[in-house]
Automatic annotation (TrEMBL):
PANTHER family: GH3 DOMAIN-CONTAINING PROTEIN (PTHR31901). This is GH3 auxin-responsive promoter. GO terms for molecular function: acid-amino acid ligase activity. GO terms for cellular component: cytoplasm. Residues 381-491 form the GH3 C-terminal domain. Gene3D superfamilies: N-terminal domain of ligase-like. Residues 295-365 form the GH3 middle domain.
Length: 506
């Protein structure tokens, strides 16, 4: 272990044992988080409106506060963006994470007050490194540079002192000087707004750097790493950066990209998943032999969950606290934070694989699934079935999206999949059949609807040209950062537009 890593381990030597305590003290830890949150909430207009004091317990908290979505909080956030204080947050708030849009607005603005920034986002980053060092005691990651793909700050019309941007840009802007010194590229380049310029200047900087860690969304990281390799004439990232040790990834499921990353990065690189959203840092893959993530319990976040089989946006009354969840059930996650979100539906769905400690996998989005014919197809099913089809057919995927098509005359329908490949299968019909087989094996509801084509016909797979998904993202102003094309949709409008772009239609 190098000197810097040894110093880091010394500074945070107690942290791994504290995290280990999650397994036996989860209820106690979560109760402490709720007390902190209610103390902060009691100082706000939102808290006073709902009769919140700093001494209430969970049952009163859940009784007085409704479960909300972003649209419910938007009027409060708009006032905060204009400069009003103590509306949702109990402390002065000047920074906001700008996230992908809702149905009613182009973007969401999530408050990032100082306590939430340090207790949640920054603590999460420190814990990722602490757990990686614990699992890899001979690591030398702090002796080399790191590259974390970041977005940009926004130039919107906000109140005095108010700033907003992608979460990654907010974090970069608030990093201490010592942390900035370990990063590539410069802050100026990292925060560039125009994607093509950022790609060019970032890849130039990466060619000249000695990189040990990569952090970011798999889809966009792949673009930048490949561009740096192209400029350097390297066959793998490991050839370009011999000291490359690990890729910390999150934002989208990694399974569709895993084989391509192994090919591009080269042998010996480790992978570690994190769950860091605009709303907070929630999970870390603490065990390299287990793909599930540990739910982080002491980040100033209180967790509740709604079983997806009773999830109804018009009647959000079925939330349960963490200690009542069961393994193997899909839940919509509800969070309360020190960042001004209270009983807030983040939009992700999870399934617990363990309850001592609480470990989970992300299964999809509350708004990103297909249930047009009662098949209840989640993103996790799609990722695994596509991975199966790709491996069996010798293909390599780059991007995909799917939506239902209704055949009104027959009273049936099918799923239309649009796929952009790194390497296409020789037989696309066989690929579609393998995808169908994989979905049947993973999802009994899908299998039942496919039985003798009773209500669901075989899937249709359309191959689109390279750059199609990039074109869709550019068209929607979503290049870089944590942006992505929706994997599964409730209709085929995105599918039709992707095909139009592939065919060269404007």
């Amino acid at each position: 272990m190098d000197t810097l890593t040894s110093l880091y381990t010394l500074l945070y030597r107690k942290r791994p044992s504290q995290i280990a305590g999650y397994a036996t003290h989860a209820m106690e830890i979560q109760a402490r988080q709720l007390r902190e949150i209610t103390r902060m909430l009691a100082r706000t207009e939102y808290g006073r409106k709902h009769g919140i004091t700093d001494r209430i317990g969970y049952s009163t908290y859940a009784e007085r506060l409704p479960i909300v979505m972003y649209e419910d909080l938007a009027p409060y956030v708009e006032r905060m963006l204009a400069g009003e204080q103590r509306v949702l947050c109990g402390e002065r708030t000047e920074w906001f994470a700008k996230s992908s849009g809702t149905t009613n607005a182009k973007s969401k603005y999530i408050p990032v007050p100082p306590t939430h920034l340090s207790r949640c986002h920054f603590r999460g980053g420190k814990d990722v490194l602490s757990l990686f060092v614990r699992n890899n005691p001979e690591t030398k990651v702090l002796s080399h540079k790191s590259f974390a793909l970041s977005g940009s700050l926004s130039k919107g019309s906000y109140g005095r002192f108010i700033k907003a941007g992608d979460l990654s840009a907010v974090l970069v802007s608030k990093f201490p000087v010592w942390a900035r010194s370990l990063r590539v590229p410069s802050i100026e380049v990292a925060l560039l707004e125009e994607w093509e310029e950022k790609l060019d200047r970032t890849s130039d900087a990466l060619v000249r750097a000695d990189i040990a860690t990569l952090s970011g969304v798999p889809s966009w990281m792949l673009v930048i790493v490949k561009e740096a390799m192209r400029k350097a004439g390297a066959k793998t990232a490991k050839e370009l950066w011999p000291d490359l040790e690990v890729f910390f990834h999150g934002g989208i499921a990694f399974d569709p990209y895993r084989d391509e990353y192994r090919r591009v990065l080269g042998e010996g690189v480790k992978y570690m998943e994190t769950y860091n959203a605009s709303e907070g840092f929630f999970g870390i893959q603490d065990d390299p032999s287990d793909s599930s993530m540990l739910l982080m319990l002491d980040y100033g976040v209180y967790y509740e969950f709604i079983p997806m089989d009773v999830f109804d946006e018009s009647d959000l009354t079925n939330a349960i606290p963490l200690h009542k969840v069961s393994q193997g059930i899909n839940y919509a996650m509800v969070i309360s934070t020190l960042g001004g979100l209270y009983r807030y539906i983040i939009g992700d769905t999870v399934r617990f694989t363990s309850t001592a400690p609480y470990k989970f996998v992300i299964t999809g989005r509350t708004k990103s699934f297909i249930n047009a014919f009662g098949e209840e197809l989640m993103v996790a099913n799609a990722d695994k079935a596509l991975d199966h089809a790709a491996k069996e057919s010798g293909a390599r995927l780059r991007e995909y999206s799917a939506g239902p098509v209704f055949l009104t005359e027959e009273g049936k329908g099918y799923h239309h999949w649009v796929v952009e490949f790194e390497e296409e299968p020789k037989d696309i019909a066989r690929f579609a059949s393998l995808l169908d087989e994989g979905l049947k094996a993973l999802n009994s509801d899908y299998e039942a609807k496919r039985y003798k084509d009773i209500s669901l016909r075989p899937p249709l797979v359309t191959v689109v040209r390279e750059g199609t998904f990039f074109g869709w993202m550019k068209e929607h102003g979503k290049l870089g950062g944590q942006h992505k094309v929706p994997r599964l949709s409730k209709d085929d409008s995105i599918i039709r537009r992707l095909i139009e772009l592939s065919d060269g239609q404007k």
